[in-house]
Amino acid sequence: EVQLVESGGGLVQPGRSLRLSCVTSGFIFDDYGMHWVRQVPGKGLEWVSGISYNSESTAYADSVKGRFTITRDDAKRTLYLQMSRLTVEDTALYYCARDMAPAWDGMDVWGQGTTVTVSS
Amino acid sequence: QSVLTQPPSASGTPGQRVTISCSGSTSNIAYNYVYWYQQLPGTAPKLLIYKNNQRPSGVPDRFSGSKSGPSASLAISGLRSEDEADYYCTTWDDSLRGYVFGTGTKVTVL
Fold it and tell me: Do A95 and B44 touch (CB under 8 A)?
């Protein structure tokens, strides 16, 4: 069974940093691209960032470009999102999602999410 | 705000057919695949349709997708109470160099 389990969320002050992790199982991790998608409670989905299967290609939403960094550790089957200079607008539930292909072919499997709250 | 526009709500009685539109542009839907997700309350999104009109295994054939130019649609036929959920479209945007999601549509079964 394919599983994605996010962690690392929590309460953080504006301007600080946080790193999210997504541990995966049940599939060949380094064959697939991966993504982060967030959702403010009661609001819609917002794609945040994606990374190709071999880490050679990454992409970011304009809202996080220059502040967030997506990486992956294939040996640990883990996806990361390093978030810096956080603002209250970054408060959301952050989902990890698997791409349907090595890169940029839509998202098929999603984790249950980890909550990030940015507040003073 | 999102570059993909969906109606905020749609409804129907059990057994009816409901259609949800997703309006984009030449930088996104027109030249890229569209994906549809169902999000039940308190749960993660679930893939319903990929590559415009393909259903993953396990998704009932009551769900179908189509695309024409810069717009796409999701149809739910034989509406059932368990179809009450939020539905989102998404696609790659060539100008933004990233994925964009639709504004979301809440489907209510009357």
Answer: yes
